[in-house]
Write a structure and sequence with these properties.
With 376 residues, this protein is of the alpha/beta class. It has 11 helices and 15 strands. The chain folds into 3 domains: 104 residues, no CATH class; 191 residues; 49 residues, Nuclear Transport Factor 2, Chain: A. Strands 6-5-7-8-12-13-4-14 form an 8-stranded mixed β-sheet. Strands 9-10-11 form a 3-stranded antiparallel β-sheet, with no helix packed on it.
Length: 376
């Protein structure tokens, strides 16, 4: 059993390596890399280039798999107590899709993320967006997009983990650019910790004006890349990956010539990133906006959760400017979303209690609230 973690502790590089990287908890989010000379994200792993003797480090403090005081983070992000709601605090929830012809069919489902980021840059809300972008071999990496054209180059989903925050951390400390970030729940939790505790000697976290979170069940480790090559050969012509909702059971790749190739989901489950087994957040609860699929019945639509004032203003502007179409989330979708989100929480809590001899590892929350989540 792992040692119980009961409070935010002052630790550094060595403890991060021992407690997170070596134990398979790392989500490869990039929060610890980019501004550190000793750690670098490369080919699906955080590589230790040299030892660091600092007893306190932001690499440890901001990691989404080190102890996180959920109440402190929630108060900072939402000015409210942590919500035991299955998918976190929110103001409104919609089905949404783009009304920009150029974006239709380019992004995932309803292309809502690309639409909102493009509007945020156009309106001056942000100057740049930190996103993921696949290289020629279809490996994702962090990328800073500053134009509509660059956003279109990134409007694809990869199911492999991406060190998106490494790209954020590489921005100059003296930069005054207003930035938006798109990431998975692990990325958004790391950003929330940065906002709560403040950054030093790296990009000023106060300049992050927008966080868009993506729903996530799990990611696929780097090993899946070789498996895909064995199944499909050259990957460079793939333009999009997708996992369709029930009743489909496949992992799909779409090629530039219109060809679609499939792998059975069961054949790739062995490549699920180990750290995902301990993740309890399906919907990126600490984001300004959270975006997921509209599910099988509403193909071509996204589920859009509005959580903060900043997120609400952007969505309202998108509706006013007629670049986004919305409708109320149907009751059956809401029920399915709650069920999926709470099941992920319970599964992660069970795995963490086993790992930490009854403790919860990185989840810092009262037993009263934890029991409510487990029992609801």
């Amino acid at each position: 059993m792992e040692e119980k973690i009961t409070a935010q502790e002052v630790k550094g590089h060595r403890q991060l390596v021992d407690e997170v990287i070596k134990t398979g908890l790392c989500t490869y989010c990039g929060a610890c890399t980019g501004s550190c000379p000793y750690l670098v994200a490369h080919n699906g792993k955080v590589i230790v280039l040299d030892n660091c003797n600092r007893d306190e480090g932001q690499c440890y403090q901001f990691c989404p798999r080190t102890y996180t005081d959920m109440e402190a983070v929630s108060r900072n992000v939402f000015d409210a107590e942590f919500s035991e709601n299955a998918f976190g605090a929110y103001n409104k929830i919609y089905l949404a899709r783009t009304k920009v012809p150029e974006f239709e069919g380019i992004g995932q489902d309803g292309s809502v993320v690309t639409t909102l980021l493009s509007l945020a840059i156009q309106s001056g809300m942000i100057d740049a967006a930190v996103v993921s972008k696949m290289d020629d071999d279809r490996m994702p990496d962090g990328y800073v997009a500053r134009s509509r054209e660059e956003l279109l180059e990134c409007a694809r989903t990869s199911y492999e983990p991406c060190p998106t925050l490494q790209a954020l951390n590489k921005l100059p400390e003296e930069s005054t650019e207003k930035v938006g970030v798109v990431g998975l729940p692990c990325h958004t939790e790391a950003l929330a910790k940065m906002k709560t505790y403040g950054t030093r000697n790296r990009f000023n976290i106060d300049n992050v004006k927008l966080v868009i979170g993506l729903f996530c069940g799990w990611t696929l480790s780097h090993g899946v890349h070789e498996f895909m090559r064995e199944q499909w050969g050259d990957l460079s012509n793939i333009v999009k990956f997708d996992i369709p909702h029930h009743p489909a059971h496949t992992f799909d790749a779409y090629y530039g010539d219109g060809v679609k190739k499939e792998i059975e989901i069961e054949d790739i489950r062995k490549y699920i990133t180990n750290g995902c087994n301990f993740c309890w957040d399906m919907t990126a609860e600490f984001a300004d906006l959270s975006v997921g699929s509209g599910r099988a019945k509403y193909r071509g639509w996204n589920t859009l959760i509005v959580r903060t004032t900043a997120g609400a203003r952007l969505v309202e502007t998108a509706i006013e400017k007629n670049v986004l179409e919305t409708q109320s989330l149907p009751e059956d979708n809401l029920i399915s979303l709650k069920r999926a989100a709470i099941n992920k929480k319970r599964k992660a809590i069970h795995a963490l209690r086993d790992k930490y001899d009854g403790g919860l590892g990185y989840i810092g929350l009262s037993e009263e609230k934890l029991k409510k989540i487990e029992m609801d």
